[in-house]
């Protein structure tokens, strides 16, 4: 049988995972400057297997407008270049021997506003996930009370604690959304 502290600890762990997943999503959302994590979603064919670029090449920031992709095998460079070009990121890589330069096109004001909407939408989805975890934890505690394994006082206390944890995680998502919006809107 689980206890109320175990329930809240499990819920908090899952909420932390939700925030980590949200941060991963934020890395992939393009701002004006390049980030090696931008290419994490791009997969390339490597001897019959579809693998992320980071497993066949070194991705780094060349300057404040360019990523460089250094293929570990010469034969992979054209495949990597094609995979980046075919991705939905809107990037146009240029091959220079073994090195592939990926210039980041400057973002228009309209595109920046679109990206902030995407960030807000992702933030709302993350908050919904956290609220669902809160609901599940509260239901679990209510089940304990119903089965006479916890008292009504325990229920009230745990609901307050669960709400505090939820509020803290929602506030963290709001901060991350705000910071990403500032980053996108900065020229």
TrEMBL record:
Main location, first listed in the record: cytoplasm
GO biological process: cytoplasmic translational termination
Ranges for domain Ribosome recycling factor: 22-185
Gene3D superfamilies: 3.30.1360.40, Ribosome-recycling factor
GO CC annotations on file: cytosol
Top-level taxon of the source organism: Bacteria
Alphabetized UniProt keyword annotations: Cytoplasm, Protein biosynthesis
Cell compartment(s), UniProt: Cytoplasm
Molecular functions per Gene Ontology: ribosomal large subunit binding
Protein family (similarity comment): Belongs to the RRF family.
PANTHER family, alphabetized: MITOCHONDRIAL RIBOSOME RECYCLING FACTOR PSEUDO 1, RIBOSOME RECYCLING FACTOR
Biological role: Responsible for the release of ribosomes from messenger RNA at the termination of protein biosynthesis. May increase the efficiency of translation by recycling ribosomes from one round of translation to another.
Name by which UniProt lists this protein: Ribosome-recycling factor
Organism field: Ramlibacter lithotrophicus
Gene: frr
């Amino acid at each position: 049988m689980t206890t109320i502290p175990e329930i809240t600890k499990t819920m908090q762990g899952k909420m932390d995972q939700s925030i980590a997943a949200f941060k991963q999503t934020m890395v992939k959302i393009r701002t004006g400057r390049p980030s090696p994590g931008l290419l994490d979603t791009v997969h390339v064919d490597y001897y019959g297997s579809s693998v992320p670029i980071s497993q066949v090449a070194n991705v780094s920031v060349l300057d404040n407008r360019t990523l460089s992709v250094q293929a570990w095998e010469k034969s992979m460079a054209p495949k990597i270049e094609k995979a980046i070009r075919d991705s939905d990121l809107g990037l146009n890589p240029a091959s220079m021997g073994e090195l592939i330069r990926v210039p980041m096109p400057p973002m228009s004001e309209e595109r920046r506003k679109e990206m902030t909407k995407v960030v807000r939408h992702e933030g709302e989805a993350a908050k919904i996930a956290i609220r669902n975890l809160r609901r599940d934890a509260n239901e679990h505690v209510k089940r304990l009370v119903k089965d006479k394994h916890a008292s009504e006082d325990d229920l009230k206390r745990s609901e307050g604690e669960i709400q505090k944890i939820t509020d803290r995680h929602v506030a963290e998502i709001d901060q991350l959304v705000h910071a990403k919006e500032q980053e996108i809107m900065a020229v």
